[in-house]
From TrEMBL:
It holds the Pfam family PemK_toxin. SUPFAM superfamilies: Cell growth inhibitor/plasmid maintenance toxic component. It comes from the Archaea. This is PemK-like protein. One of its GO terms (molecular function) is DNA binding.
Length: 118
């Protein structure tokens, strides 16, 4: 499977046309139960109107920077199977940017902050 920080092309859950993939940032690592077969990824977008999205700065791209500004949606999560979903690779981003996005994703799943305020 793609390494953590790799940007892959896979199906777009917001479109009904299966031939219309979108980029996804792989945020999982080797601790996945089947790391050679699947990974957890978050969606990319070209839309900046999503509150909480992360703009991907040029300096975060290691390779494969697209021609327009991209944003990561850390709450739009998918499990991608390499042989079924991934149809290509865009490039990769830095470990630091991937860690920032991963922390935001985890914050949506962690109930401890909510529990402390109740």
């Amino acid at each position: 499977m793609a390494d953590r920080g790799t940007v892959v092309w896979a199906p777009d859950p917001f479109k009904t046309d299966a031939g219309n993939p979108r980029p996804w940032l792989v945020v999982s690592g080797e601790r996945m139960p089947y790391p050679d077969e699947e990974s957890i990824a978050v969606a990319f977008s070209t839309q900046s109107h999503h509150a909480g999205s992360f703009a991907v700065p040029s300096e975060a791209w290691i390779r494969g920077e697209p021609g327009q500004q991209s944003f990561v949606l850390p709450w739009t999560i998918a499990t991608l199977k390499d042989d079924l979903h991934v149809v290509g690779r865009q490039g990769s981003v830095t470990d630091e940017f991937t860690a920032q996005v991963t922390a935001a994703t985890i914050s949506y799943l962690d109930a401890s902050e909510k529990a402390e305020t109740e």
